[in-house]
C-alpha cells in the first residue's frame, strides 16, 4: 500500500467540523464580536459627543497632589513588616479603614501603626503660662507689640510711642 503525500500540485480536500447537535453559540453577541465593528470602535470612540470630557477633569495640581498622596500611602504600606501587611491582606485600603475606626485604637498602638496620644496636663503650679494661639492684636498706634505665640523663644519688648 502506497502512502500519499500532499504536495503543491496534489491536494486532498479536508472536510470541516460538522455536528448534528444544536449550537451553544449565542448569536446575540454577533455584532460585538465582529472584527469590523471592533475596529470601528477603536477608530471613533463611542462616548457622548455632547458633553466634553475636559469639563469633568480636576485641576492638574489637585490631581497631582492626589497621586502623590496615593503613592506615599502605598510606599509607607510597603515599608511595614510583612506580618502586619498580611494581617490586612496586603491592601493599604484595609489598613486605612482599620486606622480610621476609633475602636481599633489600642490594637493600632500595639501594632506600632500610630503613637499613643498623651493627654496628661502638666501639674498645677509648675510655672508654665499658657498663651493663646491667636492673640488679639491691640489697635494700631497704641505703642505696644503683641505677645508672641511662644514667649520663651522670643522676648516681649515694649515700644513707647513718641
The level of helicity is 25-40%
Mean pLDDT: 75
**Secondary structure tally: strands:** 0
Q: SSE order, as H and E? A: HHHHHH
Head-to-tail CA distance between termini: 131 Å
Task: Enumerate the spans where pLDDT stays under 50 for 5 or more consecutive residues.
Answer: none
**What overall form do the CA principal axes indicate?**
elongated
- Give the strand content: under 5%
Structural class: mainly alpha
Gyration radius, rounded: 37 Å
Helix segment count? 6
Biggest sheet descriptor:
none
How would you characterize the overall build of this protein?
Helix content is 34%, strand content 0%. With 162 residues, the protein is mostly helical. It has a domain at 82-115. 1% of the residues are buried. The mean pLDDT is 75.
Would you spell out the secondary-structure blueprint of this structure?
Elements: H1 30-33, H2 35-43, H3 60-79, H4 82-87, H5 92-100, H6 105-111
